Amino acid sequence: MISFFVNLFNLLVAIAYGLKKDDEFRILMVLLLLLLAGGTYFYWEVEGWSVLDALYFCVMTMSTIGYGDFVPTSSFSKIFTIVFAILSIGVFAAAVSKVVSIILTRRRQRLEGGAK
Predict the structure, then answer these.
(1) Domain ranges of the chain
(2) Topology of domain 2-115, per CATH?
(3) How far apart are CA 44 and CA 80, in angstroms?
(4) Alpha-helical segments (H) within the chain
């Protein structure tokens, strides 16, 4: 359990660092939040899902988990979901990759700083 909290802390530190120091990371976070907000609003309005259910569906789609407990019902929603998935999976993967890059870069800097 301790390792979970250590890793969560490291993740939050990396995100905070990326938001302060990395323009590319900030752009990815803005895109990610815009996709989440837009998708949530769409499913809330068109499908009639609660805001939490719509947000949950968006996160499950963009992270490629896709439990299947919520499914778009109209043709319009299905087309939107196709476009949403293509865009959001790419942005999500880029954001996760950037977080990993930040973590590894900071770890390398710490090791090189300690070796001197």
Answers:
(1) 2-115
(2) Helix Hairpins (1.10.287)
(3) 13
(4) 2-21, 23-42, 51-62, 75-115
Tens-digit pLDDT profile for residues 59-78: 999 999 999 999 999 999 99
Those residues with Cβ within 8 angstroms of residue 54's Cβ, 6 or more apart along the chain or in another chain: 39, 40, 41, 42, 43, 44, 47
Give, for 66, the enclosing helix (H) or strand (E).
Answer: none
d(CA 60, CA 39): 12
Please give the model's pTM, rounded to 2 decimal places: 0.85
Which tens digit of pLDDT belongs to each residue from 29-54? Answer: 999 999 999 999 999 999 999 999 99
Q: Which H or E run contains 71? A: none
